[in-house]
Amino acid sequence: TTMRMITGCIPPTAGTAVVNSHDILSDPIGAKRQIGYLPENAPVYGDMTVTGFLDFIACVRGFNTDDARRRVESAIERCHLDKVRHQSVETLSKGYRQRVCFAQAILHDPPVLIMDEPTDGLDPNQKHIVREMIRTMAPEKVIVISTHILEEVEAICTRAIIIANGAIVANGTPAELKARSGLHGAVELTIAGAPAAVVTELQALPAAARVTRSSDTFTVFPKTPDKLFAEVGALIKQRGWAATSLRVLEGRLDELFRELTTGEEQIRKSH
After folding, report:
1. pLDDT tier at 212 (50, 70, 90 boundaries)?
2. What is the mean pLDDT of residues 219-224?
3. DSSP 139
4. Which of 259, 251, 250, 249 is nearest to 170 (CA)?
5. pTM, whole model, 2 decimals?
6. What are the two backbone dihedrals, phi and then psi, of residue 181, each rounded to the nearest 5 degrees?
7. Which residues pair with 267 in a beta bridge?
């Protein structure tokens, strides 16, 4: 919904959005000229060829013949579409359809790109291609991505905003947000054939808040993060436990997301 309001598809119930100094309510055409929009599910005309569809978009954007041809060729090259340029869109895989819709979004070289779930449903190779396209354009554009796939945040975003029930509940870099997770600073260890007393002894550490166990793997949540790892390590050595792994956790965005949101959830990322 937020994306659709910023792009002028639906009016906001309150407030407004300003895109490159153009207010979406008082100057909707000016604001939309600043935006390239990749909607969710990549809506394109299936009976058109890739080149035909992009020619159509160039015409809608009002470019003359020579400029339109140049822009279409540039979009095809940047989105790696040359080998399917003469195929009808309906014959393409989801990954290629996504890239065709991406191409129409950048055809007019907008300063702002807004992308709704840009890699949803793509296989790992297709995700990699789309992410690389985004990274390539990031230095020259403001790129705003809406997604519930939190791996996208760490993969391509420099800033994340979590919105719950229409209000911003978190705003920062992915690293800053992970540091707010309850898992941040926790120590995870695996002890082969762990005795029952392990949980009790870990729980008794001064820097430990609580301990969870899954088979032979233990997670010690911190009361004093900067001291916990050393205390766990010393206890392992003292007891002679056969620890096969020991690491400090960074924190996880999905954990923070669950902590901060209830009901309908939406996450926005700005590159």
Report:
1. very high
2. 93
3. G
4. 259
5. 0.77
6. -70, 145
7. 162
